[in-house]
Amino acid sequence: MKRRYVITDVFTHTKFSGNPLAVVLDAQGLSAHQMRAIASEFGFSETTFVLPPTDPKHTARVRIFTPSREIPFAGHPSIGTAFVLAQKAVASGKLLPDLLVFEELAGLVPVSQLKEKGVVTGAELVVPEPLTRRSQVSAERVAACLSLTAQDVRVDAHEPQVASVGLPFLVVELASRDALRRCVPNLVAFREVLPLDGAVSIYAYTRDVDRQEAGMHGDIDARMFTPRMTEDPATGSATGAAVALIAEIRGQSELALRIAQGVDMGRPSVLLASVSAHDGASQVRVGGHCVSVMEGTFELEGEEC
Asked: Rounded distance, CA 214 to CA 212, Å?
């Protein structure tokens, strides 16, 4: 069976920057084993597989795989998949509703199309879960994971902590942009700390931003390191968790931040995140622009009936 795929860069206006994503459009019949193998072949941080929804009122069922495992939710895959589906609909003369609803393992994920002059330019999602704050880790142990010293870790606002809005991350604030730039993941230290409460990756950020660096203009700068000792150019799910954590610590019911990520690895990205809390309920949004890069097909018969 011939299966179509599209590669798009997420959280950027420019090709070959942002976070690349492969979207497999014809995933019916593929087994989980095949999906993981395909994700490994693409080699991106995540690959999505688009399936018919269980409930016809929803847009699609979306499964998300890293090269090593399936994950319940992720930001840039959901946003990139919405962008690709909207573009494909326009190309075929169809119109999707402005609000798409994806069935993901973490639950229903609403994703709104972003448009400029009627043209789809990106998407914005609402995270599937409220913020949960889990275990804390000492500054010394997290610093070792990033080849830093404890003095590079800032703890006046919060200790390094596992936080989640659908996918857990160990979130740590660093004292300076220089410390963020010097981060190098240390495999031995990583394995001593993670996994922890579902988190396998570290999201480091700083408020000490260089607003002229690589043309980026962010309220915070961030980097995210995976257990494979690789860096992610832009991480929507971690950004949502970090911004929700910051808002809760500050006691702010409304907060909107612009996050620069990927600068230090040569794939600059910009993520827009906001928190809005009313009547005891909080809504976290993460969005950004996308750009199509390439598309093609591959032949593979499914393993499932």
From this structure: 6
Rounded Cα gap, residues 156 and 175, in angstroms: 10
In sequence order, the 6+-apart residues with CB closer than 8 A to the CB of 295 are 4, 5, 6, 7
Percent with pLDDT over 90 in the chain = 90
Whether pTM exceeds 0.85: yes
Residue 46 annotated in active site: yes
Catalytic residue among 41, 46, 129, 254: 46
DSSP 144: H
The pLDDT value given to residue 213: 59
pLDDT lower than 50: segments of the chain: 214
The domain containing residue 26 runs over which residues? Answer: 2-125+289-299
Domain annotation covers residue 211 = yes
Q: What is the CATH number of the domain that holds 207?
A: 3.10.310.10
Q: Single out the residue of 218, 153, 212 nearest to residue 180, CA to CA.
A: 153
